[in-house]
Automatic annotation (TrEMBL):
Keywords: Transferase. CDD domains: NAT_SF. This is Putative acetyltransferase. It holds the Pfam family Acetyltransf_10. Signal peptide: none annotated. Residues 1-107 form the N-acetyltransferase domain. Coiled coil: none annotated. Gene3D superfamilies: 3.40.630.30. One of its GO terms (molecular function) is acyltransferase activity, transferring groups other than amino-acyl groups.
Length: 107
């Protein structure tokens, strides 16, 4: 799913635009990416992005969304109703990284 300007929280800084954060939901319900610019962390941007992702997932008829959350992101997703399915070690660019496969079900 491509991102639209409406899906990306932005801030006008003079003549420049700086993305506060971005997120992406794939066609199979994966929250594939979520990033919040360090200047805007702790201000609710990730929560707003997640709400938009969830709205889109429900609009598309998904009964579940899932993500592979880092150790740092895991508490955020747990606070927002996600459950850990499993911990896993994945290789990215030759480095072993721990993350958590998490899901949120919609009844």
């Amino acid at each position: 799913m491509g991102r639209t300007k409406d899906e990306q929280a932005r801030l006008d800084r003079g003549n420049r635009w700086k993305a506060r954060g971005v997120s992406d939901l794939t066609g199979d319900g994966c929250l594939d990416m979520m990033f919040v610019h360090p200047e805007f962390q702790g201000l609710g941007v990730a929560t707003q992005l997640l709400c938009r992702v969830e709205e889109e997932a429900l609009r598309l008829g998904f009964r579940r969304i899932y993500t592979e959350a880092s150790r740092t992101a895991r508490p955020f997703f747990e606070r927002n109703g996600f459950s850990v399915i499993t911990g896993q070690i994945v290789e990215k660019r030759g480095h072993a990284l721990e993350n958590f496969l998490m899901e949120k079900l919609y009844v």
